[in-house]
Amino acid sequence: MAEPIAPAATLPGHRPPPFYCPVPSAVHPQVRRIEERALDWLEARGVYADDVERAWNAATHAAEFSCRLAPYGDEDRLVLFAQWSYWLFALDDDRLDVEPAAGRCPEIVDLGLRLVRCLEAPGCGLLGTGPTAAALDDLVARTVPVAGEVRYRRLVDGARDLVLGVAWQSGNAGRRVLPTPAEYIPGRISDVGTRFDAAFTEIANDIEVPGVSLYSAPVRALTELTGFIAACDNDLLSYAKENGPGAQGQNMVTVLAHHHRCPPEEAVTRAVALRDRAMTLFLRLREQVLRTAGPDLRGYLGGLGHWIAGNIRWSDTAPRYASPRRLHRLPVPGATLGVTWRDTPTDSRGGAPGIPTVDWWWDQLDC
Question: Which of 26, 62, 260, 266 is deepest in the core (most CB within 10 A)?
């Protein structure tokens, strides 16, 4: 029996701004079967500590996330992608995103080193012998032969980049500092798992972009733009989650408010403008690169568009965001953040925004 749609679970007075995203969104037709297979695996592995953790892990809708990033991918590979995503969310909730964040940077660095080494040396036991570690060993054993040497190495490098970003955010909390926009954007690109997910989109779609193309400046810029846009969208959509009672998180809104000494409402406007400016660049630069791209690179670039559009739609109804844990003991079925859309960007200027760590993205345009 269908559950009634619950009201948007945002904080009083906060609604997500309309999103500019003129790229189509799609989802794999077997998303529900993929979800069932992935969650059955988690259950069999005994990863959940209790029913509450089980409910919140399922509420990430990680299978839908995977199926929106690679809507035309192979079903078995997408099951694997979903299992990795659920496992990482479980690790995040259990070991990485535990309050208080201040003072936990050394612990997170230690965990990150152990995690990455378990990916590089399967079976080494650096994460111990519990269910979470055993589940990771199983994931690695099944991923290596599917991914192959090159794509698996990209996945490991993506995991290393992810834990670096998480440790950096924790370090900021420990020092009680908010980074500048120039610091926050590259750090958030890492923290949101950009390079890990990029590697898995190759695996799920069974493509392998030649290194000379993937690591060229324009394609690196497109990958980072995708991560930044998705991260900024997450920050705008999860503003309620991150700024509920007792929240200590940093996000694009709080960073801009602190940097510009402005109220949150103005910071939201600034964040949307910067995000739309990046979206405009993404569309222009992708069109430029597609003119000479080979088939695997074309598939990768198409996947980046699915990633941006799919991330918004996934976040809108994933209970992890739509009924934030700070405000609810259990996920609220049918909750939504109430995403709306706009046809034009709030800022379509073609020049760089004057942020030195990312201005080079705009340098990649031929014109």
Answer: 62
Measure the CA–CA gap between 200 and 180, rounded to whole angstroms. 30
Q: Is the peptide bond before 324 cis (omega within 30 degrees of 0)?
A: no
Report how far residue 316's alpha carbon sits from residue 255's, in angstroms, rounded to the nearest whole number: 23
What is the per-residue DSSP string for 262-298?
--HHHHHHHHHHHHHHHHHHHHHHHHHHHTT--HHHH
Q: What is the pLDDT of residues 58-88, one digit of tens each?
A: 999 999 999 999 999 999 999 999 999 999 9
Single-letter amino acid, residue 15: R
Is 238:318 a contact under the CB 8 Å cutoff? Answer: no
Task: Convert 111-148 to b/e letters by CB count within 10 Å (16 or more is b).
Answer: bbebbbbbbeeeeeebbeeebbbebbbbbbeebeeebe
pLDDT in tens, 335-357: 888 899 999 999 988 899 999 99
Rounded Cα–Cα distance for residues 336 and 10 (Å): 9
For residue 244, the SS3 value is coil
Helix (H) or strand (E) holding 315: helix 295-317
SS3 22: coil
The CA distance from 302 to 188, in Å, is 23
Amino acid in the structure at residue 174:
G
Tokens 């980046």 locate to: 304
CB 195 within 8 A of CB 161: yes
Dihedral in degrees, nearest 10, Cα atoms 323, 328, 334, 335: -30
Contacts of 59 (CB under 8 A, 6+ apart): 318, 319, 320, 323, 331
